[in-house]
Write a structure and sequence with these properties.
Blueprint: H1 2-21, H2 29-34, H3 41-52, H4 55-69, H5 74-103, H6 108-115, H7 119-138, H8 144-152, H9 156-204, H10 208-216, H11 238-250, H12 256-264, H13 268-293, E1 305-307, E2 310-311, H14 316-321, H15 326-366, H16 373-400, H17 404-430, H18 436-459, H19 471-492, H20 498-524
Helix pairs in contact: 1-9, 1-15, 3-9, 3-12, 3-13, 3-15, 4-13, 4-15, 5-11, 5-12, 5-13, 5-20, 6-7, 7-15, 7-16, 7-17, 7-18, 8-9, 8-15, 9-13, 9-15, 9-16, 11-19, 12-15, 15-16, 17-18, 17-19, 18-19
Length: 525
């Protein structure tokens, strides 16, 4: 126990030390929110990866989908690496950085407002972020209770409060830069932790071959007649698996806290290097998490069940880890805490800055008040505290009561955000003809689809079809709907001002020219 406590204390001290060391970077709004757009490739890549893969992935999704699909769940992690990281960095990285600098936008709602010269879109996007990021933030605490209870015998409430206070402390002290540096440290812990855990779990089951052999003899409820379903290449339900890969890989393209990493990166060279680093990180961490979860059914006799044949998915990974040595268990707790805190810090910075810069500051200006830099920073910091406090309360209420509405809202948050923002953001970066009306319709459709799915689940009736009743599949539908809605509505509604749009897109060509000239000068030298 003493060793685990010492590991935890060292982690806390390092985290707070980073916050103190980064205080100077928070002298203005752009420094607090974007690290003054000077964050390098390693920090940005690790910030992207650690924000992507939270405790929800390690404890919740890895256990749930590993149980359902066996080792084929590894495809989810690989999809996250190659579609959610590699392809996202190549498609979004450079254009997002250049366009947001051209528009001087620090948040996704501000980007929509300036790109389409529409205050309505800015407010609508900010409202969506506010409504759906709070329950999404609250879901990050899931899984911590079991691991902390197993390792330290601490009540869930104290786990939530401790994580909330520590995250608030270093974010308030050092802003985005402190979060990025801590993400780097936490990312290293996650890499070594997941490798050590996989090795220990396989060793406890007689090695990889013995574990696979044991898993092959377990029938899958989804394909009872399929021998070795849980070790097959695409698992017992390939279509369902594909839906999970699509939502968890492409959904991140529309999440404000993920896209925001490209706002802050220092230059285009850092984007190229960060692409490789982020992809390798995702292969190890995401691939490792889902690969580990694939062996969950080997522990079927020990996990908790809500009903016969229906396990408590959040109990699967903790059960697999319960027999680990104390030192390794302490590292696992730090791994999960790191994953949760890195995502939490990213979410609260995104939420606080969005509400302050896109709602309160414009509201004050309309009333003839010009808030200065210190006023805006104070608003952002207060809202960071507000978001952390509210998400903590929601998480505790959800854990201590039978309120199912909160859990339903958590489940649709990712799909609602991705469905609303992915298509408009992507088309806004690449297609000049994208119209403000198409963006608004996409917002309504994405949120509407996911809310309808939630209402149907709450009422106990199918949403369109039983297949789409799953929030995962409904989220994919919302994203695909946006990819159709934006181009179709753009073609039948008034186009944005051509001169203004040409000016925005000209920044891409200027950057290419400058880079080419620099390369030529370097070659001549």
């Amino acid at each position: 126990m003493m060793a685990k406590i010492l590991i935890l204390l060292c982690f806390f001290l390092v985290t707070l030390g980073v916050g103190l060391a980064c205080r100077r970077s928070t002298s203005d709004v752009h420094g607090f929110v974007l690290g003054s757009r000077s964050v390098g490739s390693w920090l940005t890549a690790f910030a992207y990866g650690t924000s992507y893969f939270s405790a929800v992935i390690f404890v919740g999704y890895a256990g749930q989908f590993g149980w359902k699909y066996g080792v084929a769940a590894t495809w989810i992690g690989l999809g996250n690496a190659f579609f959610g990281s590699l392809l996202a960095w190549n498609v979004l990285g450079r254009r997002t950085r250049i366009m947001t600098q051209q528009l001087d936008s620090a948040t996704m709602p501000e980007f929509f407002g300036k790109r389409f010269q529409s205050p309505l879109l800015r407010v609508a996007a900010a409202a969506i972020v506010f409504v759906f990021l709070i329950p999404y933030t609250a879901s990050l605490y899931n899984g911590l209770s079991r691991l902390f209870g197993m390792a330290f015998n601490i009540d869930y409430t104290w786990c939530v409060l401790g994580m909330a206070v520590l995250t608030a402390a270093y974010v308030l002290l050092g802003g985005y830069m402190a979060a990025a540096v801590n993400d780097f440290i936490q990312g290293i812990i996650m890499i070594f932790g997941i490798v050590a855990v996989i090795a220990a779990v396989l060793e406890s089951n007689g090695g990889l071959n013995a574990a696979l052999h044991s898993l092959s003899s377990i029938p899958s409820p989804q394909a009872p007649d399929m021998h070795g379903a849980l070790i097959s290449f695409f698992g017992p339900a390939p279509l369902e698996l594909l839906g999970v890969v699509l939502l968890t890989s492409f959904g991140t393209w529309g999440l404000p806290q993920m896209v925001g990493k490209f706002y802050a990166i220092t230059d285009e060279g850092a984007i190229a290097k960060g692409t490789v680093i982020s992809t390798v990180f995702a292969v190890i961490v995401a691939g490792g998490c889902y690969f580990l979860g694939g062996f969950g059914q080997l522990y079927a006799s020990s996990v908790e069940y809500v009903a016969p044949g229906k396990p408590v998915f959040d109990s699967i990974i903790p059960t697999m880890l319960s027999g680990l040595p104390d030192i390794l268990l302490g590292i696992v707790v730090i791994l999960v805490l790191s994953a949760s805190m890195s995502t939490l810090s990213s979410l609260v910075i995104t939420s606080g800055s969005t509400l302050a810069l896109d709602i309160f500051v414009p509201m004050m200006r309309r009333r003839g008040i010009a808030p200065g830099n210190r006023t805006q920073l104070l608003q952002i910091r207060l809202l960071v505290v507000f978001f952390i406090a509210v998400s903590s309360i929601i998480a505790i209420v959800q854990a201590k009561s039978s309120v199912t509405f909160i859990a339903q809202l958590m489940g649709i948050s990712w799909g609602a955000l991705a469905g609303a923002f992915l298509a408009p953001f992507l088309f806004a970066l690449y297609w000049k003809r994208t119209s403000p009306a198409s963006v608004l319709v996409s917002f309504i459709a994405g949120v509407g689809i996911m809310c309808a799915c939630m209402i149907c689940r709450f009422a106990g009736v199918p949403f369109i079809t039983p297949f789409l009743s799953s929030p995962i599949n409904a989220g994919v539908l919302a994203m695909l709907a946006g990819m159709v809605i934006v181009p179709v509505v753009s073609l039948i509604t008034p186009a944005p001002d051509r001169t203004a749009v040409d000016t925005m897109f000209a920044s891409y060509h200027r950057k290419v020219t400058v880079n080419a000239s620099t390369a030529l000068s370097d070659a001549e030298a």
